[in-house]
Design brief:
This protein is mainly α. The protein has a single domain (about 5-50, about 75-265), classed as Ferritin (Up-down Bundle). It contains ten helices and two strands. Bound molecules: fe (ii) ion (2 copies). It holds the Pfam family DUF455.
């Protein structure tokens, strides 16, 4: 049995099956927060995370250009969308656990670990919600191909905690805030009640994941006496391949502590 938070993280990362990965993720989160309740804490420890997390054999992973496009308004299109979100959520579970053992050489307050354990716990719930919706529609996670390359950002930033925070929560997860309202509307139009409810839960909880990224990015900038905005631009240009795409959900981004001067200058300017 893992004794430290870092060992728990590595156990989640090296578990392939999605349901089993997320079950462990939630159990370890409960263990962590039980210890934190009285002001205590489990040791963070040290453990070597794998370069890439274990994943189930299905879904097969395809280059995004080769993933078949389906009409978004059709039943098949809605299943494809739920499947894509399930894949994103499973990837997010691994991303949040990965940041814990990956950067233990950088001294961080215990609140840093609280935030990522909580985010990982929520992503595990989101994965289950999406799996349940897929099963309600007669499908399942693994039935369709999924995007390869989602782990690329994690690999690229494996030696750079600020790069990781800039690209994963502050670019990729912030993008989720931009696109989720339209997705919810699409399922509302189809009167797909459980999917609407699930996506509304996801949308509400994702704001805090972006906020955790922004909080710890600012914390590290403050500790090093660095100006956060130019550093953010520099890191996103270095690690994120492609421009940021408006329209932005400026309201939710602001809730998450991301002012417009972070993202607008990166529109069509990244390489
Ligand atoms: Fe999520
Ligand atoms: Fe998230």
């Amino acid at each position: 049995m893992p004794q430290t938070l870092a060992e728990m993280a590595v156990d989640v990362l090296t578990t392939a099956d999605g349901r089993e990965k997320t079950r462990k993720s939630r159990a370890y989160a409960a263990e962590w927060f039980a210890a934190r309740k009285d002001g205590g804490s489990l040791p963070i420890g040290q453990a070597q995370p794998p370069l890439r997390p274990s994943r189930p054999e299905q879904p097969g992973l395809l280059d995004p250009r080769d993933v078949p496009k389906r009409k978004p308004g059709s039943p098949q299109g809605r299943i494809a969308l739920l499947h894509a979100v399930a894949h994103i959520e499973l990837n997010a579970v691994d991303l949040h656990w990965d940041i814990i053992p990956r950067f233990t050489d950088t001294r961080m307050p215990v609140g840093f670990y609280d935030d990522w354990v909580k985010a990982a716990d929520e992503e595990s719930k989101h994965f289950k919600l999406m799996c349940d919706c897929l099963e309600e529609e007669g499908s399942h996670y693994g039935a369709l191909p999924a995007h390869a390359g989602m782990w690329q950002a994690a690999e690229d930033t494996r030696d750079d905690i600020m790069g990781r925070l800039a690209v994963v929560p502050m670019v990729l997860e912030a993008r989720g805030l931009d696109v989720t309202p339209n997705m919810i509307q699409l399922f509302k139009n189809a009167k797909a009640t459980s999917a609407v409810k699930a996506l509304e839960t996801i949308y509400a909880e994702e704001v805090s994941h972006v906020a955790y990224g922004s909080k710890w990015f600012h914390f590290l900038c403050g500790r090093d006496d660095v100006d956060p905005v130019p550093r953010f631009h520099e890191l996103v240009r270095k690690y994120f391949h492609g421009p940021l795409k408006p329209p932005f959900n400026e309201e939710k981004r602001a809730d998450a502590g991301m002012a417009p001067d972070f993202y607008w200058p990166l529109v069509e300017q990244s390489t």
